[in-house]
Model the fold of this input.
Amino acid sequence: VLKVIATKKDGALLVHPGPLARGTWAVGAGVTATVATGPRDAIRRAHSATHLLHNALHKTLGEHAQQQGSKVDADWLRFDFSNLSPVGDDALATISADVKAHVAASAEVKWETLPLAEARGQGAMMLFGEKYPDPVRMVSMGPMAGGAMSRELCGGTHLTNTSQVDAFEILHEEGVSAGTRRITALTGEKARRHAEEIEAAIDRCAQLLGTASVATPAAVTDLLEQQRGLKKQLAGGEPHRPGAATLPLVGGRVTYKQKKAALIEAARMLSVAPLDTPARVEAILADIKSLREQLAQREAAGPLDADTLLAGASDVAGVRVVVAEAPGAAPNLMRQLIDAVRQKTQPAAVLLAARQGDDKVTIVAGVTKDLQERGVAAGKWIGPVAKAVGGGGGGRPDMAQAGGKQPERLPQAFEVARETLAGMLES
Done:
């Protein structure tokens, strides 16, 4: 048994290379060739779909959209074509709909060998710079939707009817070089499975956001506004209060085309692949929950400002030292608080810490300029403190930041902070 994995031409010979699966091989042996119909049919679907796609590109973008290369596999295709700019979502939707219309038209697919001049006279698509034999093999599909017909010179394996493509789904469009774009698509069973995944993804997003599937992009806009507003509030700025999201009215049956468009738009807003959208929405929802918990912690802790911090300061060798927890404070807010303390009094050294959940703590330290001149550096001060909470970090002499994974050890870390600073001042 020899497994054929490719077909190549060597002079006048057609060569079928592949590994010997079992048995022996000898010159003169009889051979029975068997076609693996499943994989071959899947390749036929993908290959015939490239012809339909080429035709659709011409209709939507113009005849300049000439094939620059292609690759087909089982129910998968990659098609490169000439186009100076990216193909927009609306144009892609039109191209996809055109291919699907050709599939639905159940047009006959046939091939014939005829003189090159005759094929050219019938309008067969010929690639610029390509050398063709004479006679040539012309593959025709049609008449299709709108009376159009696809004619291309091609030696590949094809279906006998466009309906056998079964299903067609564009995965993505991208640039491969200057003036050349690429479309990757699926056919048959792979296309159907992909469509099911698309529907499942948008339905999951809608469920997470508590909205209709087609309203997901508007709900994502509102979600991102909430996240930005909470982060701004934690950073110490004025909270941004988003208005109510304007959700589109939804009436009647929602089509797959509408669902797919909604998922693509939501994915674009979140900068992820369409099928990764539900996971990204879940992550943002979790982040919003965490941000709200941090804000609640800050409110419960009471006022958090320079005067409050200085009220709890200690005096070490004539230096005002603040070592305190800043519940719910983001790093940016802690830096602002340290700057405020340094403006009010000198010499001063400030180290603030904020818990973020049960397994994370952020520490920020700063010292005044006169302490830096005496050799006290914030980056050196913060190192042993971070180590005490199972982390590390550092920074400039005036300001440093670190993190740790053991918030429960903050009391011990604060003791380390006081002892470390006292040692630095003594030396």
Observations:
- The first strand starts at residue 8 and ends at 10.
